[in-house]
Amino acid sequence: MIITIDGPAGAGKSSIAREVATDLGFAFLDTGAMYRAITLGAMRRGIAFDDVLALVDYAQQANLSWKDDRIDLDEQDISVEIRTPAVTSNIRYIADPPEIRGCLTMQQRRIAEGRNLVTEGRDQGTEVFPEAECKVFLTASPEERAKRRHLQLQKAGKESTYEEVLMAQNQRDLEDRMRPVGRLRAALDAVVIQTDGMTSCDVKQAVLGIVRSNL
Ligand code: C5P
């Protein structure tokens, strides 16, 4: 069984998808981490971001591996570095070209083979697993998402204002909604959960309810 959880940045997809996967005993895939890892690898290798052929070539042979919350590139833990603003600001060079998306789509399908999987991202229910048994689109207002993200950053001791977080998030939403292939949108057969005012426990129960109704 494949469960897809798509939605915009800051909607809480990763933590909910991870918890749902644990509850159901399914594998979990964070496809944003894949896009981030390829971005970081290309930066480290000095591959020009306008050289799509070189980027596809790199995406095909990048040495990525996962274990629980940890993601390794060339056998080195990159779980923290892929979340830095430098990587985030360059992701569009990897996420925009359809050729690179095609390569990551193939890898994501390969990972799903023979597995029960909860997979989260932007295009999982639309492009990568259009036949998935259960599709969720998790969202919240831009203000609510920015508020949550700002709180997270404060807790982690990272300086930023709410307005800065909201502006960066709006920019990323725009980029994610505008790309020609794999853009952020709900699949026609996805159940949309608007999470404003819900606790993460409420959201998890809502997702599990949708999964049960698809069994
Ligand atoms: O989910 P996360 O915020 O880590 O994703 C980082 C970026 O990777 C997104 O803003 C989006 O541009 C890209 N992405 C994508 N398709 C996915 C997952 C992520 O284009 N399936």
Automatic annotation (TrEMBL):
Top EC category: transferase
EC number: 2.7.4.25
Gene Ontology molecular functions: kinase activity
Cytidylate kinase domain ranges (all copies): 3-211
Pfam family, one: Cytidylate_kin
Subcellular location: Cytoplasm
Catalyses which reaction(s): CMP + ATP = CDP + ADP; dCMP + ATP = dCDP + ADP
Keywords recorded for this protein, A-Z: ATP-binding, Cytoplasm, Kinase, Nucleotide-binding, Transferase
InterPro entries: Cytidylate_kin (IPR003136), Cytidylate_kinase_dom (IPR011994), P-loop_NTPase (IPR027417)
Chief place of localization: cytoplasm
Residues at which ATP binds: 7-15
UniProt similarity note: Belongs to the cytidylate kinase family. Type 1 subfamily.
Protein name: Cytidylate kinase
Organism, scientific name: Neorhodopirellula lusitana
